[in-house]
Fold:
Amino acid sequence: MERNDKSPLSFDEKRRQKAENFHLNIVEDTGAENKEPEEINSYSGQDVKKQIERESMKNEKKRIRQQKREKKKRNRHNRRMFRLMWIVSVALVGTMIATYLVTGMNDLLAINRPDDTEVSVKIPADPTLDQVTDILLKNGVIKESGYFKIFARITKSDHDFTEGTYQLRKNMDYQAILTNLEGMSSRTDTVEVTIIEGMSVVEIADTLVNGGALNEKDKQTFLDYCASDKFDNDFDFLKAIKNGGDRYYKLEGYLYPDKYEFYHNDSPISICYKFLNNFERRLYTKQAFEGYEKLYSVHKMLEKTGTTYTLDQILNVASIVQAEAADKEDMYYVASIVYNRLANGDELGVAYLGLDSTKFYPYRSAEVLPESAGKNYKSRYDTYSLKGLPPGPICNPGNDAIKAALQPASTEYLFFCHDKDGQAYYASTIEQHEANLESIK
Structure:
């Protein structure tokens, strides 16, 4: 039967329709399920990738935190080890320093060197601190070389060593060692040198070298000192000299002839001081002029004789007397002739002293002139062309010549000469002198 679409459905029809609709929904759902996996699978890959990245980051952070923990742990361990090593090092260094200081101080004070044995120590020329230290160490005078060097430098004694042989004891402290090496009081390498009356400065220098008192390389230094003003402030008799610049050697006449003891290869300045000190002692004591006690000093002699000559002029005359006279007695006559010419030479026709001893000064004769002097050498002291006394003494006179210069014989002689045996001849006139010369030919 044909029904109207708009008429209501019966109960059975409704139920059947629901059943059909339910089936259709199932089919549609099934179709949907067939398409669903593609959408689900696409979404799940991205999620897994992100999940993996999150896990990786998490693991990396965990690893980094673990590394930091391990690093901190290692750092703490290293710091503990460093502190331990530092403490050990400080303790070790402190112990070493303490040991070094104690050992060094003991050596400085000679506490660990009770042996008082004397040893002979030879110091070379121009020694360094290292050389001196090695020598002292080898000879048992010190035990701590490094400490000795430090002490020498601190006390500014590292450049004050002098060549020589020294007698030292093994139980000397550092200060005593340095004092002995610097002051030379313990030197044993001495030489004896005799300076003969009449020697010049140049001849004395050669004598010192030959006698071992002066090193050849120091000879010129010695001569330079003898020509200088270096000692003026120490000796009034040198300061009184006013024409030092006109002289070859200012100390000529003041190197007193005597027997001297010098150190081997002594220093030039020490040698000069020894000469000058001896001159001062010899000429300013009563013992210097035995038999002339009332005239015990040159100054007193000058006062008593009433002369206007200075000490330097007296020594000048004495040096001429020493060089020209044949013997002690002759000295007083030669001195008389020199004074007579100086006082009355112009009036009597002998204005010049005319002394052979002055012609080649500071050399003895033409035969000993050095090549550097030249063939036409002319001395500033030549009394054949120079009026009056030469600028200074021409040699170093002894006591006898000085006494003769202070108390000459009373004569009217103006000339003298000697024969080959040393016999003296005197004359008051040129005629008498020429006759004397003829007789001794």
User: Anything to note?
Assistant: The chain has 13 helices and six strands. The chain has three domains: 69-188, 198-283, 295-441. The beta strands are 118-123, 164-169, 190-194, 259-263, 415-418, 424-427.
